[in-house]
Amino acid sequence: MSPLESIAVGSTVVVAQMDDPQTALSALRLGIAQGETLYLAAKIPGGPVVVRRGNIEIALGRELCRHILVETKPGEMKS
Amino acid sequence: MTEQTVIAGLHTAAAPEKQLPEKQLVVLAGNPNVGKSVFFNGFTGQYVNVSNFPGTTVDIPKGKLPNGRPIHDTPGVYGLSGMSEEEQVAENTILSADVIVNVVSAISLERDLFLTQQLLDFGKPLLVALNQMDEAALLQITIDIPLLSKRLGVPVIPCIATEGNGLDHVLLALTESHSENAPRLGNRLPDAPEPNALLELEKNPGERMHIYGLRRHYINALVSQVVKQAQPEGKPIQRLSQAIGMLFLNPFIGLLSGLIVLLALYQVVGIWVAGDLVNFTEKTVMLKWVVPFLKQAVSLLASPKTPLFEVLAGEFGVLTMSVQYIFGVLFPLVLGFYIYISLLEDCGYLPRIAVLSDGLLSKIGLNGRAVIPLILGLGCVTMATVSTRVLTSQRERTIASTILAITIPCSAQLGVIIGLMAVTGGLKAWAVYCAILFTVLLVLGTLLNKMLPGSSTSLILDLPPMRLPMLKNVAKKTWVRTVVFLKEASPLFILGSLLVSILQVSGLLLTIQHALAPVTESLLHLPGATAKAFIMGMVRRDFGAAGLYFLAKEMTAIQMMTALIVITLFVPCIASATVIWKERGIRESSIVLVGSWLLAFGVGAVLCRFLEWTHIL
What is the pLDDT of residue B411? Predict the structure, then answer.
């Protein structure tokens, strides 16, 4: 398990845990929940991480990405 | 009481306790950028706020369906959680609805159905308009509509709103009470508490998180049954609009495009609108035609030089100055700014700027969203202060409005400053001026971020696809925003000029000027007469800068720089001070006002000595 912040662009990850309640709430509404698969589309240096989930793109602040823990399992997709 | 009303009363009592259909309020609800506006337009033929990004004013467009039923539109929200003022406004309108048309996008059902389910859980009768079916087809998404309808327990009507496809079905369902598609109560979350109990439960943070989690998993399971998308496993198809969007997120291209956008903003709004156009509207239309007419009209009431005449039509007269300022300066300026911002917003560029600036803004306790109020501040600080309502927390609104009030020069002021720089200092002076303001902004923001309790929220932003701006949207959005702003700000400008005229008539203005003169001389090494320019800056920020014009000949480059910096940091104009007071309360606005005095003179005192010592200028 590692923070989303440390993942390389182009990886596919599965969300394992979200620490911060306020942001977890916003994330839940947009579709980011435990067990969801995200594709890491871009990282702005010193800034947000952009993830793609299905057909939508979401920018997540850097601080927030430290609180989202993910698993990198490129081969294993959630069906 | 007449016989007729008695009979009418009996009649209603006998009827089932249900409002007449034509009185029932229909509300459009949905996520941002799903095309709600097109529905509203199609149903009512009226204007609507089509937002591609959290807007700059919160307003609820209202109209009527062909059968007379009232229909309201709401700002796009992802759920009813009261996370910003915009969301609260949407929430209140949605909860007051009798029936809801929930517009969802066929390409992002996982996201959109969260709100749908929340509305169903709250016990609202609704129908789902499944929009953007054409884009879903392009992305090879197939949706089992009958199954979706069955699972939600409400009608689902496929639409392509931009082509007018499906709108008539939705309209029919709303106007014909026996339509099979008429909105109805759907399936609530399994084991969900009663709607009223749920409303209370969702106010409790812990419970809310639990319910949101359940709802999210329920919707994800539902979507995985209903939606099939043919795409290679692992790496989703990248759409062209997404590819272009990604390009603007590249730091190099992003920075370059950001510079171009700012330069264009400077040219269009700074030079053409704030310069040429305002020159015409204020100097010619207002000062040559309208104001003399007003003065003449007032002179019938009170003879010139009397206090009443001065208050109504004098130098800062309530009638003359507010009319001159609101219609001669503010209206063209705010209109120009909103056109520009609406264009950037409609093509999806603004959210990318928000993403790129997030890193820097998060260091001063804001997040990328705050970039919009800050840019708007370069137009009019009053307008920008109102727009801080889109920010999520009170803490962020405090930081943003303080930074706006103190460090951001508005375009009226910038126009005069540009003129002065051309005479004394040139490009080098510009660089020094910008560097100082930027430093003050960073230091002030960092201090506020450290001092204020709590921490600010992180950016979490859904990026809409890039597209060509739709001019009709831009025009309508600009117009509504301008009107809303003028409606809100005009009374404040009138109040402001009333206050200043009273100060002037009573002689207090002169007293303050005299008291200030020694400070400017000994502390800032400036001619005593500059005190007058500072005081004028309180009335209108550009008046302050313009006051320096007359002193420019007797001032050195160092003195000019000091005076310009002090005048920029010094109190916001009286209208924005009133807005800050209204938006942020008396305590906070007093701190900002006093703080700006101290900061302006403090920075000025250090700056003039530093410049004299280093000989940079």
Answer: 80
Query: Residues near B358 by Cβ (< 8 Å), separated by ≥ 6?
Result: A44, A47, A48, A59, A61, A62, B367, B368, B459
Mean pLDDT of A21-32: 85
Q: How confident is the model at residue B389 (pLDDT cuts 50, 70, 90)?
A: confident
Residues of B with CB below 8 A from A50's CB? 246, 249, 355, 463
pLDDT digits (tens, 9 = 90+) for B113-153: 999 999 999 999 999 999 999 989 988 899 999 999 999 99
CA contacts within 13 A on the Cβ side of B529: 11
Tell me which chain A residues have a C-beta less than 8 angstroms from the C-beta of B459: 48, 59-61, 64
Helix (H, G, I), strand (E, B) or coil at B585: coil
Record: contact A28-B114, CB cut-off 8 A: yes
Confidence tier at B46 by pLDDT (50, 70, 90): low
Q: A-B interface: how many C-beta pairs under 8 angstroms?
A: 143
pLDDT band at B476 (very low <50, low <70, confident <90, very high): confident
Using alpha carbons, select from B464, B500, B459 the residue that is nearest to residue B356: B459
**Radius of gyration (C-alpha) of chain B in whole angstroms:** 28
Test B212 with A56 for CB contact under 8 angstroms.
Answer: no
* Reported confidence tier of residue B231, pLDDT bands at 50, 70, 90: low
Please report the ipTM that was assigned to this predicted complex.
0.90
Portion of chain B with pLDDT greater than 90, in percent: 35
> Which alpha helices (H) appear in B349-456, and where do they start and end?
349-363, 371-377, 381-387, 394-407, 411-423, 426-451
Q: Residue A43 in contact with residue A6, Cβ under 8 Å?
A: no
| Maximum C-alpha span of chain A | 34
Rounded to 5 degrees, φ, ψ at B63 are -155, -170
The residues of A whose Cβ lies within 8 A of any Cβ of B are 12, 20-31, 33-34, 36, 39, 41-42, 44-48, 50, 52-64, 74, 77, 79
B359 to A46: CB separation less than 8 angstroms, yes or no: yes
| pLDDT beyond 70 at B364 | yes
Does B212 sit within 8 Å of A60, measured CB to CB? Answer: no
Pairing of strands A49-53, A37-43: antiparallel
B463/A50 CB distance under 8 A? yes
Q: Alpha-carbon distance A6 to B282, whole Å?
A: 55
Nearest Cβ partner of A59 from B107, B110, B461? B461
The label of the residue with tokens 């209208």 reads B575
Task: Supply angle C-alpha B608, B609, B610, rounded to 5.
Answer: 90
DSSP code string of A44-56: -TTS-EEEEETTE
Residue B466 has phi, psi (to 5 degrees) of -75, 145
Q: Which residues contact B13 (CB under 8 A, 6 or more apart)?
A: none
